[in-house]
Amino acid sequence: MRSNEHAKADTSPAAEESSPITDADRYSRQVLFAGIGATGQQRLAAAHVAIVGCGAMGAASASLLARAGIGTLTLIDRDFVEPSNLQRQVLFDEADARDSLPKAEAARRHIAQFNSRVTVHARIADLVPGNISELLASAQILLDATDNFETRYLINDFAVQQRKPWIYAAAIGAYAATMNILPQTVPQSLEPRTSNLEPAPATACLACIFPKPPSGNVETCDTAGILSTAVNLAASIQVTEALKFLTGQSHLMRRTLLSFDLWNPAPASSNPASNYIDRSEISAAAPRPGCEVCGQRIFTHLAGENRAHITLCGRDSVQIHEHHRPVDFAAMRARLATHADIRDLRSNDLILRFRRGPHTVTLFADGRAIVQGTTDITVARSLYARFVGA
Ligand SMILES: [Zn+2]
Known about the structure:
It is built from 16 helices and 14 strands. The radius of gyration is 22 Å and the shape is globular. By secondary structure, it is an alpha/beta fold. An eight-stranded mixed β-sheet has the order 3-2-1-4-5-6-7-8, sandwiched between helices. Strands 9-10-14-13-12-11 form a six-stranded antiparallel β-sheet, with helices on one face. It starts with a helix and ends with a helix. It binds zinc ion. Zinc ion binds at residues 204-205, 207-208, 287-288, 291, 293-294.
């Protein structure tokens, strides 16, 4: 039916229809790396990773994992692509920003262009206590690519409760930080390959190290700016640690909070000829005695209240998610068109957007809205109530 050359290739229906690229070609250099090998590559193909947030960190980590051949990715993001994202968010292009495409969906489409074999679940949603189990339960490991400690504490509660590993990562200015949070037990199927190694004991959790959000947390990428390189460094380390876990080598994972300042040399460097990069590493090898979360197993963020409004990082905007219910964009659009003070009304399958005075309202299909042009919750709420509906 085909030439000999084709007969040797993967003859599954999907491969015949779409692409002559074989896994043997695609992953040849990664399989050569002794830490991965053929067995590791097979494990990656069977793996499922969830990434919370699909901004700069999430896009970089998703891109690296998809290229590495992770079988299934769940990408969760509540936001849409804007022009100011293009400086660092490596999965998005100018058309995505023009169309205000939700980031999770834009990432799914771009990944499909370079690795169509990866299954990507794009979830346009805000991670909250009510949906966290549905969104994260089926993933083997969770990657933090959020921009706020509130969501990180929620992930930490869930991960500690479910004994699921997760990897904290953060970047601001030229600063990058990351830490592995490993639960008390690793799943049986992912025990270290070397049979004489015991599964490692639990590391510290996020609340062991940061019982309260760190004081530097008042700065956001809105006030301090951000270097794309700092985000990509944190994402690279985060994904490398995830690859160790997914190939059954959790005994190689770091048990520290590691941070870098990529711009300024280390202050302790007395010899001007050796400006060392400013790097710090503190132990997170063991839980802090008495930790409320991993010690006492009190999960206040998972019990979650008062999460109705969140001011987003990087913009003058407020998110409203009081009314989780599907929105009929066609009916909404017809109704909004009758308001004389509404401008630039447009919609597609995923979002509806309009301007009113200095504010831009972007409505998602699940009833969530992002109001740009204010940080005043009262203003945002009244716009939402008046135009979207109470
Ligand atoms: Zn803890």
